[in-house]
Design goal:
134 residues, 22% strand, alpha+beta, five-stranded antiparallel β-sheet, 40% helix
Length: 134
């Protein structure tokens, strides 16, 4: 019985590996088929760009205003949401209403930052520093 158990476990592990790999490939193929002109994308090299056109095997990406380069579809790592692409390219945080409400409440409770050397607890006005030795 034990002689059959080891080969069965190995076959099951191989089956699971192939299955997960196939799922990942299908997800990548589906993502690449969703590429449309005007979409923001990230390449496998980490470059962000706008899709100008989609061809059979390649995509044309605008990496800077007026600069269009050709990449294979396999070089696209992710298709980004318009808000996410805008946040990354323009340095704007992604809007989240619940976080904004908490931030506004915190701002009302905060005191302005003081760069004075004296501590706010020092109310008698005396200098608490040790006298300098001669």
């Amino acid at each position: 019985m034990e002689t059959l158990l080891l080969p069965l476990i190995m076959i099951a592990v191989l089956f699971m590996l192939f299955r997960s790999n196939k799922k990942r490939q299908d997800q990548a193929k589906q993502m690449r088929s969703a590429i449309e002109p005007g979409s923001g994308v990230r390449t496998i090299g980490g470059m962000y760009a706008l899709v100008k056109s989609v061809n059979e095997e390649t995509v044309e990406l605008e990496v800077a205003p007026g600069t269009v380069v050709h990449y294979t579809k396999g070089a696209i790592a992710a298709v980004l949401d318009p808000e996410e692409y805008d946040a990354i390219i323009n340095g704007r945080p992604i809007e989240d209403e619940s976080v904004d409400a908490v931030d506004e409440a915190d701002e009302a409770d905060e005191k302005p930052l003081s760069l004075d050397k004296k501590d706010e607890s020092d109310t008698d006005g005396t200098d608490d520093e040790a006298p300098k030795s001669k």
